[in-house]
Design a protein that fits this description.
The complex is a heterodimer of chains A (404) and B (158). Chain A has 404 residues and is α+β, with helices and mostly antiparallel strands. Chain A is built from 16 helices and 10 strands. By secondary structure, chain B is of the alpha/beta class. Classes of the chains: A alpha+beta (404), B alpha/beta (158).
């Protein structure tokens, strides 16, 4: 018989994660409602402490950390190339984007960023954009499910499966790829990948318009999301919100355009911003609409990448995707902050290299979801409980990235 | 980095003694007690206009060096400028004024630095642990951290 180590005691709950609001301070008619950590609409293990007055939310206090896996502590004990699988697990639905930005940062520190072959860069952008589509599909589909529309969730899962199969074909894994390496790639694309990608784009475009008609422009969906959770632009910038949330608030700010990293300056795409078509600029509907428009842009980027990969940067017999991969990764002594656009916003890595070892002295991950979630208490004051769920869904958090 | 030197001279004019530009890393070392005012100036000055705090990092230099750092990565959206500010504090009493009244981004980031490094941010509206449980012992990202043996009767070592 194994000894039972943990004994449930109710007061333990108050010790490990005590409420920020105190019952003694409540006014008449007010109550504290605990939402989560196990709740379908919190997209993972997020706990919200909500102060309610009847049906109206007076205060929200998010409690995070239920999925904390000590990424930064692990990163201080691992060589740079071995951190990549951990970076995958930060935001587990957009692993390719995380890898791309991380690898870019280490390459910049090593000073080999300009030696990366163009074909490698195009493949990186291709797989990142495919993964961006997958992430936005999850965002839109689960958001639809949050506010009561069930069918589109199955549609997006069906279409996302095609992307996952493609990426599995390239890397061998469905979600956590470890495909983009510092200085190169694990493998070249498999033969026939480009044709299969084109087939997918052809298949997917009508499905996307279908999703737009059935979900985004649906009257029930518009009624639930338009004019709800309006995030003013100045508040968004002051809170450090980035990604589709910031663009929905009306600022044309996309790091792929602003910083122009990788081969994005050579590709044609536009940055959609929220226009308040159904309500106010920066409401929940705008955020979803911006994500949908970004899928169209990503599809166009995928098409352009395939075209280049079949013409200018063709697959050759002697092409080695690991040609520039350094044998020993030992950056010079420096502080370096790298950032890039992942589907949720700005993903940044702060590195301090001490110049003597292969492991970073400090590796901080500035994740987009963490910062985007911190704006929730600001925009959820004074809304209805049902709208709180709508606002939370529109932020598109992945708890793996919030807690790291 | 032509802008860097102009920025520095502008900053120098106001905070002469409390700034040490570190040209090699492109960072500016700011005295801990002035960081809030420097950030407020950088945010509101029309020539600087650093309206976004991209990242706030806590950092431990280890017991030998005896210092901890807080690193602020500022970004100006209209001018496309980057600036890295560094605050160095002693390891035995790490205390930095909070910038969360200037940049609200700092609110959670400072809580995270407090949680993992034990750096106290004075003037922070709500300085609680954010990622770890409230009754966790020690600050895990310090270089000399040893985790506790048991957490509520559950062995921490796996």
């Amino acid at each position: 018989m194994k000894e039972i180590r943990y004994r449930f005691e109710e007061e333990n709950l108050l010790k490990s994660e005590p409420n920020a609001l105190r019952a003694e301070d409540l006014k008449a008619e007010e109550m504290i409602l605990n939402l989560g950590p196990q709740h379908p609409s919190t997209h993972g293990v997020l706990r919200l402490e909500v102060l309610l007055e009847g049906e109206i939310v007076r205060e929200v206090v998010p409690h995070i950390g239920y999925l904390h896996r000590c990424f930064e502590k692990h990163a201080e004990n691992l060589p740079y190339n071995q951190i990549i699988p951990f970076v995958d697990r930060c935001d587990y639905v957009t692993a390719m984007n995380n890898e791309h930005i991380y690898a870019m940062g280490v390459e910049q520190m090593l000073g080999i960023a300009d030696q990366i072959p163009k074909r490698v860069e195009y493949i990186r952008v291709l797989v990142s954009e495919l993964n961006r589509i997958a992430s936005h599909l999850i965002a839109i589909g689960t958001y639809g499910m949050d506010i009561g529309s069930f069918t589109p969730f199955f549609w997006i899962m069906r279409d996302r499966e095609h992307i996952l199969r493609l990426l599995e074909w390239a890397s061998g894994a469905r979600l956590l790829y470890n495909y983009i390496w510092v200085g190169g790639l694990y493998y070249d694309l498999p033969i026939g990948f480009e044709e299969r990608c084109r087939e997918f784009v052809r298949y997917f475009k009508p499905k996307l318009s279908e999703l737009e008609v059935v979900l985004i422009e649906n009257k029930i969906f518009v009624d639930r999301t338009a004019n709800v959770g309006v995030l003013p632009l100045d508040l968004a910038i002051n809170c450090g919100v980035t990604g589709p949330m910031l663009r929905a608030s009306g600022l044309r700010f996309d790091l792929r355009k602003v910083d122009g990293y990788s081969v994005y300056p050579e590709l044609n795409f536009t940055v959609p911003v929220g226009e308040g078509k159904m309500g106010t600029v920066g409401d929940c509907w705008d955020r979803t609409w911006v994500r949908l428009e970004e899928i169209y842009q990503s599809l166009s980027l995928v098409e352009q990448c395939i075209e280049r990969l079949l013409s200018d940067h063709k697959r050759t017999r002697d092409f080695d995707p690991q040609a520039v991969v350094p044998k020993k990764i030992r950056p010079a002594r420096q502080d370096h902050y790298v950032r890039g656009e992942m589907p949720k916003g700005e993903l940044g890595f702060f590195f301090r290299a001490d110049g003597r070892s292969d492991v970073p002295f400090r590796c901080k991950c500035r994740s987009a979801s963490f910062v985007n979630l911190s704006v929730l208490p600001e925009i959820a004051r004074g809304v209805l409980v049902a709208d709180l769920i709508a606002i939370l869904g529109s932020i598109d958090i992945v708890l793996g990235e919030v807690d790291r | 980095m032509a802008e860097f030197s102009t920025l520095i001279s502008k900053l120098r004019a106001t905070w002469d003694d409390h700034l040490q530009p570190d040209e090699a890393s492109g960072a500016v070392v700011v005295g801990a007690e002035h960081i809030r005012d420097v950030c407020a100036f950088l945010q509101s000055d029309p020539d600087c206009y650093f309206d976004m705090l991209s990242c706030l990092t806590g950092l431990d230099n280890g017991p030998e060096a005896g210092t901890m750092e807080v690193i602020y990565n500022l970004y100006s959206i209209p001018f496309h400028h980057h600036l890295m500010l560094r605050v160095i504090v002693p390891r035995d009493n790490p205390e930095v004024p909070s910038v969360s009244s200037v940049y609200r981004t700092a609110n959670w980031h400072e809580r995270e630095a407090f949680d993992l490094y034990g750096i106290r941010f004075t003037g922070h509206p709500d300085l609680r642990r954010i990622l770890l449980p409230a009754d966790w012992e020690g600050y895990p990202l310090r270089k000399d951290y040893r985790h506790q043996e048991y957490y509520r009767g559950v062995k921490v070592e796996y």
